[in-house]
Amino acid sequence: MHEALPSLAFLGAGSMGGAILHGVVASGIPVDGGIIATNRTAEKAATLQGLENVTAVALESEPNGNTDAAASARVILVGVKPYMVPDLLREIAPVLRDDAIVVSLAAGVTLATFAENLGEGARVIRSMPNTPSTVGKGVTGLAAGGAVTADDVALVRRLFELVGAVVEVPEEKIDALSTISGSGPAYVFLLIEELTKAAIAKGFDETDARLMAEQTFIGATALLAASGEEPAELRRRVTSPKGTTERAIAVLQDANLDDVFTRATDAALARAKEMAAGK
């Protein structure tokens, strides 16, 4: 039996918060003290009603919902929109338990912003999950604030491992991590789009073209996961000497894909820095 998780509060159980919430419920791991999830509307709260051990709160009918939830929980996940974070932190700061761990799901909001609004002694961990977390295949970056203990990090790590893999990084690496795992699903979807277009150009109808392209990516990543081999080794096994794949790979390498991915991720990183500067 897995060790129980302590009481959890999801303040703003949107797509990411909701993904982690569903991951906890699906895991069957007991949560001592239960889970409280807040959303602005009754309509959104209704989507979480009926989940085992979850109390869904609509702020439109319970205006103190966030402070009540934060006061009761050991781990508080902040999932509101980034611009709403400072106000929310000021609201919950007076009621936090001494042992509370506050986890940010808000992109671009720094640990310094949390310290300013909660106090320097607050235990804060900044997280950067990605969208495959919604199907339990995520990658989450975690950056711990100065007041956080190793046990705190281990606990939050265990929470995010319910929806995928976890990478611990210093905060200055969080934006770089987001250019790989955060934005990365979009790069993969773009490659699938382009391979589908190539199939259509070769005379396949859209249904068959999509099936071939999409299932090839799904199958290749499943093979990678199951085999434990390096991607380069699996590529070599498909690439017979003097064969058709070798000819295709040569074209892709001539297109300097390594440089393209470096420039793409550098561009994403530059934009993250602009956004942090309020541009």
From TrEMBL:
Binding-site list for NADP(+): L11, G12, A13, G14, S15, M16
Compartments in which it is found: Cytoplasm
One Gene Ontology term of the molecular function aspect: pyrroline-5-carboxylate reductase activity
Catalytic activity, EC: 1.5.1.2
Pyrroline-5-carboxylate reductase catalytic N-terminal domain segment(s): 8-108
Reaction equation(s) it catalyzes: L-proline + NAD(+) = (S)-1-pyrroline-5-carboxylate + NADH + 2 H(+); L-proline + NADP(+) = (S)-1-pyrroline-5-carboxylate + NADPH + 2 H(+)
Pfam families for this protein: F420_oxidored, P5CR_dimer
Record InterPro entries: 6-PGluconate_DH-like_C_sf (IPR008927), NAD(P)-bd_dom_sf (IPR036291), P5C_Rdtase_cat_N (IPR028939), P5CR-like_CS (IPR053790), P5CR_dimer (IPR029036), Pyrroline-COOH_reductase (IPR000304)
Record's keyword annotation contains Membrane: no
Pyrroline-5-carboxylate reductase dimerisation domain span: 171-275
SUPFAM superfamilies assigned to the protein according to its UniProt record, in alphabetical order: 6-phosphogluconate dehydrogenase C-terminal domain-like, NAD(P)-binding Rossmann-fold domains
Domain of life: Bacteria
Enzyme class: oxidoreductase
UniProt: NADPH binding residues: N66
Chief place where the protein resides: cytoplasm
Pathway: Amino-acid biosynthesis; L-proline biosynthesis; L-proline from L-glutamate 5-semialdehyde: step 1/1
Keyword terms of this UniProt record: Amino-acid biosynthesis, Cytoplasm, NADP, Oxidoreductase, Proline biosynthesis
GO biological process, one term: L-proline biosynthetic process
Annotated function: Catalyzes the reduction of 1-pyrroline-5-carboxylate (PCA) to L-proline.
Protein name: Pyrroline-5-carboxylate reductase
